Amino acid sequence: MRLIATVFISLLLPSVAFAAASSGGDRFDLTNHWVGFTAIGIFTVAYLLVMAEEFTHLRKSKPVILAAGLIWGLIAWYYNTHGLPHTAEEMVRHNLLEYAELMLFLLVAMTYINAMDERNVFEKLRSWLVSKGFGFRKLFWITGVLAFFISPVADNLTTALLMCAVVLAVGGSNTKFVLLACINIVVAANAGGAFSPFGDITTLMVWQKSVTTPQGPVDFWAFFALFVPSLVNWLIPAAIMHFAVPDEKPQGGGEDVELKRGAKRIMVFFLATIVTAVSFHNFLGMPPVIGMLTGLAYLQFFGFYLKKTFHLDHPQLSTEDRIEMEHDGQMGDMVSFDVFNKVARAEWDTLLFFYGVVLCVGGLGFIGYLAVVSEMMYTQWGAAMDLTPAMNATPANIMVGILSAIVDNIPVMFAVLTMMPDMSMGQWLLVTLTAGVGGSMLSIGSAAGVALMGQARGKYTFFGHLKWAPVISLGYAASIVVHLWINSGSF
């Protein structure tokens, strides 16, 4: 039974690891106990519900939050009955700290994105592209290029949604074009997010973890070694799909959109926030989230300025009217920008889903399954293939990307990081690459794909994407080969 459970969890969570670096003398191995088997069953059911979100319309955060509570409840009950009431408590606090750092980081980034969206930054870009009247093939490449280069800053999900809006606005009646363009956008956004800590959650997780390798720490600039492999990952399938895109020119159109007051300054503040986060981490040794929260204050103060100068947006109001409105508390009706509204509009389902995943994976690691999986994947597989020590982890890291298309890259990468295998810089960059772009092989493998299935419902579908999976897989394989070649010195 233990063997069956181990094989199952290795297939489900390829790189999942122990929730702590050391086992400690007061930790029980529950991998062959009913508590362990029950925990696996709970997590499996929860994740099946997550994968079926498209059909059930049950938010993905709900099952994993419940599963996290049940798993840790079982663990705490077992340890309490064996006279160790604080052991599970200490470990769950450790998991909560890791989650809090990532959640607050993402919350700041989402707040800035929402602020730019409210100031019409993205709508301005969309309207400009629509008004140019580009042909389908040219638009296919333009949206792909923009998705690849915007996602490193704005994140792959936001970028994909923006580019999909352009595609639907221009070629919404041409189902074939919409399908191919959406596939291209998903691949490009995921690839672009893989070489930047701000582009994808998995890359952010590796950067915030401050992974140390024999070649040095995996710092902010180290990820840019993945630029060329990521570019190859997108270009190969895009070049092949190009010939299937209809060679037609749609009717142009699109109303001109004006940026709201302060839009350009908010973009500058966002860049300043990124610089602050990188500087805090690289030069002061502080967690990047501290720099991001500091950057949130930039937006808060600027929001206060916009509120105090709201009359510039409404020149028809007299000074007396403005003073009376402020005194009566009616300013909120006139001032469209409120930083706390941008916080409220963050993708809370994603943030809470991340909480559930971190706690679930941490619980499975604490039980002991993930240490077994770590040994099997990062030691036994390489030894069985007679690989050199430097390449020992390559099969496992490639499998991470394949399975991230089925499961999701967040639990996979969190599992790798909690396991913390002893790998070179090149191997850490490899697993970052594969986890980031592997989800492109299936439409359900990444947040960008799932979101676009909803946005372009009936035109971009699971099976439509699946037809092009072999081509996308070719790009996946090529990106790995290119990384092993051009970054060979880091292995």
Automatic annotation (TrEMBL):
Residues 49-436 form the Citrate transporter-like domain. Residues 1-19 form the signal peptide. GO terms for biological process: sodium ion transport. It is a multi-pass membrane protein. The keyword Transmembrane helix applies. Its main location: membrane. Keywords: Antiport, Ion transport, Membrane, Signal, Sodium, Sodium transport, Transmembrane, Transmembrane helix, Transport. The chain crosses the membrane at residues 35-52, 64-79, 99-115, 136-154, 160-179, 186-208, 220-245, 266-283, 289-306, 352-378, 398-417, 429-456, 468-486. GO terms for molecular function: antiporter activity. GO terms for cellular component: membrane. InterPro entries: Cit_transptr-like_dom (IPR004680), NhaD-like (IPR045016). The keyword Glycoprotein does not apply. It is found in: Membrane. Belongs to the NhaD Na(+)/H(+) (TC 2.A.62) antiporter family. PANTHER family: SODIUM/PROTON ANTIPORTER 1-RELATED, SODIUM_PROTON ANTIPORTER 1-RELATED. This is Na(+)/H(+) antiporter NhaD. It comes from Candidatus Thiodiazotropha endolucinida.
